[in-house]
Amino acid sequence: AQSVTQLDSHVSVSEGTPVLLRCNYSSSYSPSLFWYVQHPNKGLQLLLKYTSAATLVKGINGFEAEFKKSETSFHLTKPSAHMSDAAEYFCVVSDWVNDYKLSFGAGTTVTVRA
Amino acid sequence: GAGVSQSPSNKVTEKGKDVELRCDPISGHTALYWYRQRLGQGLEFLIYFQGNSAPDKSGLPSDRFSAERTGESVSTLTIQRTQQEDSAVYLCASSLGSPKITGELFFGEGSRLTVL
Predict the structure, then answer these.
(1) Taking CB atoms and an 8 Å cutoff, what residues of chain B touch A94?
(2) A94 shares contact with chain B (CB less than 8 Å)
(3) What total number of domains does chain B contain?
(4) Of A60, A101, B72, B78, which has the fewest beta carbons less than 10 angstroms from its beta carbon?
Protein backbone atom coordinates (compact mmCIF):
# COMPACT_ATOMS: atom_id res chain seq x y z
CA ALA A 1 0.00 0.00 0.00
CA GLN A 2 1.08 3.54 -0.64
CA SER A 3 1.79 5.94 2.21
CA VAL A 4 3.48 9.25 2.94
CA THR A 5 5.41 10.52 5.93
CA GLN A 6 5.71 14.20 6.66
CA LEU A 7 8.88 14.64 8.61
CA ASP A 8 7.95 17.85 10.43
CA SER A 9 4.74 18.43 12.32
CA HIS A 10 5.47 22.14 12.63
CA VAL A 11 7.69 24.58 10.73
CA SER A 12 8.25 28.20 11.71
CA VAL A 13 9.88 30.66 9.32
CA SER A 14 10.41 34.38 9.09
CA GLU A 15 8.64 36.30 6.36
CA GLY A 16 10.84 36.53 3.27
CA THR A 17 12.90 33.43 4.10
CA PRO A 18 12.69 30.05 2.32
CA VAL A 19 10.18 27.38 3.30
CA LEU A 20 10.94 23.65 3.15
CA LEU A 21 8.34 21.01 3.98
CA ARG A 22 9.62 17.46 3.85
CA CYS A 23 7.70 14.44 2.62
CA ASN A 24 8.81 10.87 2.00
CA TYR A 25 6.61 8.36 0.25
CA SER A 26 6.35 4.61 0.15
CA SER A 27 5.05 3.03 -3.02
CA SER A 28 5.66 -0.15 -4.95
CA TYR A 29 4.96 1.63 -8.20
CA SER A 30 5.51 5.04 -9.74
CA PRO A 31 3.28 7.15 -7.55
CA SER A 32 1.04 10.13 -8.13
CA LEU A 33 1.85 12.70 -5.47
CA PHE A 34 0.14 15.89 -4.40
CA TRP A 35 0.47 18.72 -1.95
CA TYR A 36 -2.68 20.25 -0.48
CA VAL A 37 -2.96 23.31 1.76
CA GLN A 38 -5.61 24.01 4.38
CA HIS A 39 -6.02 27.55 5.63
CA PRO A 40 -7.93 28.09 8.87
CA ASN A 41 -11.66 27.60 8.39
CA LYS A 42 -11.18 26.89 4.71
CA GLY A 43 -11.41 23.74 2.61
CA LEU A 44 -8.29 21.96 1.40
CA GLN A 45 -6.85 23.32 -1.84
CA LEU A 46 -4.53 21.63 -4.30
CA LEU A 47 -1.10 23.28 -4.47
CA LEU A 48 0.51 21.02 -7.04
CA LYS A 49 0.64 17.46 -8.35
CA TYR A 50 3.18 15.03 -9.76
CA THR A 51 1.95 12.34 -12.16
CA SER A 52 5.15 10.99 -13.79
CA ALA A 53 5.84 13.92 -16.09
CA ALA A 54 8.48 16.53 -15.15
CA THR A 55 10.14 15.81 -11.82
CA LEU A 56 10.13 19.48 -10.82
CA VAL A 57 6.56 20.57 -10.39
CA LYS A 58 5.44 24.16 -10.05
CA GLY A 59 2.27 25.01 -8.23
CA ILE A 60 0.24 27.97 -7.14
CA ASN A 61 1.45 30.81 -4.93
CA GLY A 62 5.12 30.29 -5.81
CA PHE A 63 5.40 26.77 -4.39
CA GLU A 64 7.23 23.96 -6.13
CA ALA A 65 8.15 20.38 -5.35
CA GLU A 66 10.73 17.98 -6.70
CA PHE A 67 10.11 14.28 -7.13
CA LYS A 68 13.26 12.30 -6.28
CA LYS A 69 12.81 8.62 -6.86
CA SER A 70 16.22 7.68 -5.46
CA GLU A 71 15.34 9.36 -2.17
CA THR A 72 11.60 8.54 -2.28
CA SER A 73 10.97 12.18 -1.49
CA PHE A 74 8.61 14.91 -2.63
CA HIS A 75 9.63 17.97 -0.64
CA LEU A 76 7.73 21.24 -0.99
CA THR A 77 9.62 24.52 -1.20
CA LYS A 78 9.05 28.23 -1.62
CA PRO A 79 11.89 30.73 -1.96
CA SER A 80 10.30 33.49 0.10
CA ALA A 81 7.56 32.98 2.68
CA HIS A 82 4.62 35.33 2.94
CA MET A 83 2.35 35.84 5.91
CA SER A 84 -0.50 34.34 3.89
CA ASP A 85 1.42 31.04 3.68
CA ALA A 86 0.57 30.29 7.31
CA ALA A 87 -1.56 27.15 7.03
CA GLU A 88 -1.46 23.38 7.31
CA TYR A 89 0.10 21.45 4.44
CA PHE A 90 -0.58 17.85 3.52
CA CYS A 91 1.51 15.56 1.36
CA VAL A 92 -0.70 13.04 -0.45
CA VAL A 93 -0.20 9.89 -2.52
CA SER A 94 -2.81 8.14 -4.61
CA ASP A 95 -3.29 4.39 -4.60
CA TRP A 96 -1.83 2.75 -7.70
CA VAL A 97 -4.74 0.42 -8.31
CA ASN A 98 -7.60 2.46 -6.90
CA ASP A 99 -6.39 5.89 -7.88
CA TYR A 100 -9.41 7.64 -6.37
CA LYS A 101 -8.14 6.67 -2.93
CA LEU A 102 -5.75 9.24 -1.52
CA SER A 103 -3.51 8.69 1.50
CA PHE A 104 -2.74 11.84 3.43
CA GLY A 105 0.23 12.57 5.62
CA ALA A 106 -0.35 13.83 9.15
CA GLY A 107 0.23 17.41 8.05
CA THR A 108 2.77 20.17 8.68
CA THR A 109 1.66 23.38 10.31
CA VAL A 110 3.50 26.43 8.99
CA THR A 111 3.74 29.63 10.99
CA VAL A 112 5.26 32.76 9.49
CA ARG A 113 6.90 35.35 11.75
CA ALA A 114 6.80 39.00 10.76
CA GLY B 1 -22.84 25.76 -6.79
CA ALA B 2 -19.48 27.49 -6.81
CA GLY B 3 -17.90 25.05 -4.40
CA VAL B 4 -18.53 21.99 -2.29
CA SER B 5 -21.01 22.80 0.45
CA GLN B 6 -21.34 20.84 3.69
CA SER B 7 -23.86 21.08 6.49
CA PRO B 8 -23.99 21.41 9.37
CA SER B 9 -20.66 23.12 9.89
CA ASN B 10 -20.76 22.15 13.56
CA LYS B 11 -22.70 19.43 15.32
CA VAL B 12 -22.65 18.57 19.00
CA THR B 13 -24.50 15.43 19.97
CA GLU B 14 -24.85 13.05 22.87
CA LYS B 15 -23.38 9.59 22.79
CA GLY B 16 -25.83 7.12 21.31
CA LYS B 17 -27.66 9.58 19.08
CA ASP B 18 -27.75 9.35 15.29
CA VAL B 19 -26.35 12.14 13.10
CA GLU B 20 -26.63 13.00 9.43
CA LEU B 21 -24.04 15.03 7.57
CA ARG B 22 -24.81 16.47 4.17
CA CYS B 23 -22.63 17.26 1.18
CA ASP B 24 -23.51 19.21 -1.95
CA PRO B 25 -20.77 18.65 -4.53
CA ILE B 26 -19.82 20.93 -7.39
CA SER B 27 -22.38 20.62 -10.16
CA GLY B 28 -21.31 18.12 -12.80
CA HIS B 29 -18.76 16.33 -10.62
CA THR B 30 -19.46 12.64 -10.88
CA ALA B 31 -17.01 11.56 -8.19
CA LEU B 32 -17.67 12.24 -4.52
CA TYR B 33 -15.58 11.32 -1.49
CA TRP B 34 -15.93 11.36 2.27
CA TYR B 35 -12.89 11.69 4.51
CA ARG B 36 -12.51 11.96 8.27
CA GLN B 37 -9.94 14.15 9.98
CA ARG B 38 -9.23 13.49 13.61
CA LEU B 39 -7.40 16.05 15.69
CA GLY B 40 -3.69 16.13 14.82
CA GLN B 41 -4.00 13.48 12.15
CA GLY B 42 -4.17 13.32 8.39
CA LEU B 43 -7.31 12.61 6.46
CA GLU B 44 -8.75 9.12 6.58
CA PHE B 45 -10.60 7.79 3.52
CA LEU B 46 -14.15 6.67 4.26
CA ILE B 47 -16.06 6.11 1.03
CA TYR B 48 -16.05 6.95 -2.68
CA PHE B 49 -19.01 7.43 -5.01
CA GLN B 50 -18.91 7.33 -8.77
CA GLY B 51 -22.29 8.64 -9.79
CA ASN B 52 -24.81 7.13 -7.39
CA SER B 53 -22.91 3.93 -6.74
CA ALA B 54 -20.27 3.36 -4.12
CA PRO B 55 -17.66 0.97 -5.51
CA ASP B 56 -15.47 1.37 -2.44
CA LYS B 57 -16.85 1.45 1.08
CA SER B 58 -13.74 -0.05 2.59
CA GLY B 59 -12.93 2.96 4.73
CA LEU B 60 -16.15 3.01 6.72
CA PRO B 61 -15.01 2.30 10.32
CA SER B 62 -17.99 0.16 11.34
CA ASP B 63 -21.52 -0.79 10.37
CA ARG B 64 -22.72 2.27 12.31
CA PHE B 65 -21.52 4.33 9.36
CA SER B 66 -23.42 4.50 6.08
CA ALA B 67 -23.60 6.88 3.15
CA GLU B 68 -25.79 7.40 0.16
CA ARG B 69 -25.86 9.62 -2.85
CA THR B 70 -28.92 10.51 -4.88
CA GLY B 71 -29.27 12.03 -8.31
CA GLU B 72 -25.51 12.17 -8.80
CA SER B 73 -25.62 15.14 -6.50
CA VAL B 74 -26.23 15.36 -2.77
CA SER B 75 -24.66 12.83 -0.46
CA THR B 76 -25.51 12.05 3.15
CA LEU B 77 -23.19 10.40 5.64
CA THR B 78 -25.08 8.86 8.55
CA ILE B 79 -23.55 7.77 11.83
CA GLN B 80 -25.80 5.71 14.06
CA ARG B 81 -25.43 5.35 17.83
CA THR B 82 -22.54 7.82 17.91
CA GLN B 83 -19.54 7.16 20.11
CA GLN B 84 -16.98 9.61 21.47
CA GLU B 85 -14.34 8.27 19.10
CA ASP B 86 -16.52 9.47 16.20
CA SER B 87 -15.65 13.05 17.13
CA ALA B 88 -13.80 14.49 14.14
CA VAL B 89 -14.14 16.78 11.16
CA TYR B 90 -15.88 15.02 8.29
CA LEU B 91 -14.78 16.32 4.92
CA CYS B 92 -16.51 15.89 1.61
CA ALA B 93 -14.81 16.35 -1.75
CA SER B 94 -15.82 16.07 -5.37
CA SER B 95 -14.01 15.79 -8.67
CA LEU B 96 -14.65 15.42 -12.39
CA GLY B 97 -12.71 12.17 -12.47
CA SER B 98 -10.00 10.31 -10.64
CA PRO B 99 -7.27 12.35 -8.90
CA LYS B 100 -4.60 10.80 -11.09
CA ILE B 101 -6.31 12.01 -14.24
CA THR B 102 -7.80 15.33 -13.21
CA GLY B 103 -5.35 15.99 -10.43
CA GLU B 104 -7.65 17.74 -8.07
CA LEU B 105 -10.27 17.05 -5.48
CA PHE B 106 -12.36 20.03 -4.40
CA PHE B 107 -13.03 19.93 -0.68
CA GLY B 108 -15.77 21.44 1.42
CA GLU B 109 -15.01 23.16 4.70
CA GLY B 110 -16.10 20.16 6.68
CA SER B 111 -18.61 19.26 9.36
CA ARG B 112 -17.14 19.24 12.85
CA LEU B 113 -18.78 16.54 14.96
CA THR B 114 -18.41 16.49 18.72
CA VAL B 115 -19.86 13.55 20.63
CA LEU B 116 -20.27 14.19 24.33
Answers:
(1) 98-100
(2) yes
(3) 1
(4) A60
